[in-house]
Amino acid sequence: MFRITALALIAALAVVAGVLCSPATADEPKSPPGYLKAAPPPKLPPGLDLDRLADPKEATKVADWVEKEYSDSPKPESVRMLVALLRKGSQMGGQDGWFGAAETRYNWKWLAEQHGLAPDAKAIPKDIFHGSPKLFDRLDRDGDGVITPGDLDWSDRNPYVQQLGLVSRLFRRMNTTGTGKLSREELDDFFKKAARGKDHVTPDDLRLVLIPPGGYLPGDAPSTPILVRGFLAGEIGSMGEGPKFGALAPDFTLKTVDGKETKTLSKLLGPKPVVLVFGNFTCGPFRALYPEVEAVYRRFKDEATFLMVYVREAHPTNGWAMESNVRAGVAVKQPTTFGERVEVCNQFCQRLKPEIPVVVDEIHDPVNTAYSGVPARLYVIDTKGRVAYKNGRGPFGFRAGEMEQALVMSLLEISSAKEPKAAPVGRAPR
Length: 430
Description:
alpha+beta, Glutaredoxin, two-stranded antiparallel ribbon, 15 helices
């Protein structure tokens, strides 16, 4: 996807609403009542030849024009993203355009209050933690025996997050089959590539593999015209922004990939929170990180309900095509019918072998539109049907560990609702 900013990479190396969607009944169904139409893309200068955007000067002129057209503040996410694409192209980082932090009700202040502590408390030791050891361990990210604000910090400045980004980058360089699971053969192949005929690998050899010229593997780097076309086609992300945290989660009904069942979100709600996973076959970061989501599922499948929604392709061969996908055997056109999307979803299932139930969004993308799911996104929906957690747009914001911590705190919220709440330190009991 997009290149990691130089500053973030150097730092990393240094530390080594409610919308009801009817189920699809045909390849090209008409919009049913209540169908949420996709937001229109931002305006571009009339008659613009997108190929001209390959010239940075022309792209800058168009960016100036767009900013003038949308001078009101705050600008919609889609406008911010278009301007960033025009000004930075593929050099965008995790804080540019519509990329940014997750939205969640769960933070250190919330967790401290749940344990009767003041917001400025420094730590929550195990002996006063309200949940099980299993939940404590998932929040105690560094494993030092206490939960601290740093354990819940998922910002790009956090050393753990920087290291996580570097590990993910290294993993994707090694996992050439795109399965999200590294084999011995792939490790051997990576060593041979990095060593370049030697019997060892030096730090500089590793750097050259991790940070190739231009920041992309051969055949992956996009031009600005390709990025803007992908943006306008909804392949880089949905023009809509999805529900805010605290809002009611849009309801939907979709068919499972095998066509034997339908899943309705409102029917999944109840005593358990719901985790929604959005993704597609051609998004390399999603494929690489998806096994982490499956690991969360295996840990919490008895306490929460999980559902994956398969959405529009991010890197079809007739869009921002990536040679790394072709080398991994992931080369598909953007489906134009529901049946074609099911076929590609089946390829995903055969390759990744998900245990989480998978449903397929309709070809007119109603659920992706409602949740802003492309290219990859995670939600935690509470038992009342409200969004408790929404990760930042993928690929940068797709963090299974962050989602898991939000899920853990939603489980604590459920259990604490059944018990009297402790009075915060420094305050009189109510």
